[in-house]
Amino acid sequence: MPDLRVPTGPGIPDGLVIPAAELVERFSRSPGPGGQSVNTTDSRVELVWDAATSGALTEAQRARLLARLPDPVVRVVATEQRSQLRNRAAARERLAELVRAALAPPPPPRRPTKPTRGSQRRRLDAKKQRGETKSLRGRVRDA
Q1: Residue 136: C-alpha distances to residues 86, 126, 140 (Å)
Q2: CA-to-CA distance for 136 and 16, rounded, in angstroms?
Q3: Contact (CB, 8 A) for 78 and 45
Q4: CA-CA distance, 16 to 100, in Å (whole number)?
Q5: What is the 3-state secondary structure (H, E, C) of the chain?
Q6: Rounded Cα–Cα distance for residues 116 and 119 (Å)
Q7: Which residue(s) pair with 130 in the sheet?
Q8: How far apart are CA 92 and CA 21, in angstroms?
Q9: Cα angle, residue 10 at apex, residues 9 and 14 outer, rounded to 5°
């Protein structure tokens, strides 16, 4: 299994490579007719990574990741593809996106904006104009 590469992003300027030794993959197939595992049945891939003991992260990244994730052991499950290979790729992509999103800095807080007097006046003018337009509709008729 190759190493998992997390692409560069806001919290990861150089990218991140999680060694394959830190990833645990579990495969399971739903049984086909007769209780036997068949290649054409749906397969399930579970990818597990322990962020608390990972050597791929710096201390700052580990602290940020553990603060933003509810559990230090990250589990990702992929079941929507019919092939195990595709589910494996989907699980790896999901784990990479989850790590990338968790390491990204939070967006700056936005202050709620208060309407200014000018915008209140414009809003009231638009409301008045809509009322006048509605009242004129009944009076104007095509000849």
Answers
A1: 62, 15, 6
A2: 65
A3: yes
A4: 9
A5: CCCEEECCCCCCCCCEEECHHHEEEEEEECECHHHCECCCCCEEEEEEEECCCCCCCCHHHHHHHHHHCCCCEEEEEECCCCCHHHHHHHHHHHHHHHHHHHHCCCCCCCCCCCCCHHHHHHHHHHHHHHHHHHHHHCCCCCC
A6: 5
A7: none
A8: 14
A9: 55
Whole-number pLDDT of residue 42: 62
pLDDT of residue 143: 47
Instruction: Say which residues have a Cβ less than 8 Å from residue 56's Cβ, sequence separation at least 6.
Output: 16, 17, 18, 19, 22
Query: Per-block average pLDDT, block size 10, for the chain (143 residues)?
Result: 80 82 82 55 81 86 87 86 82 90 84 69 81 71 53
Looking at residue 5, its amino acid is: R
Q: Count of residues for the chain? A: 143
Amino acid, res. 114: K
Q: What is the pLDDT of residues 108-130, one digit of tens each?
A: 888 777 666 667 777 778 888 88
Residue with tokens 């992260």: 57
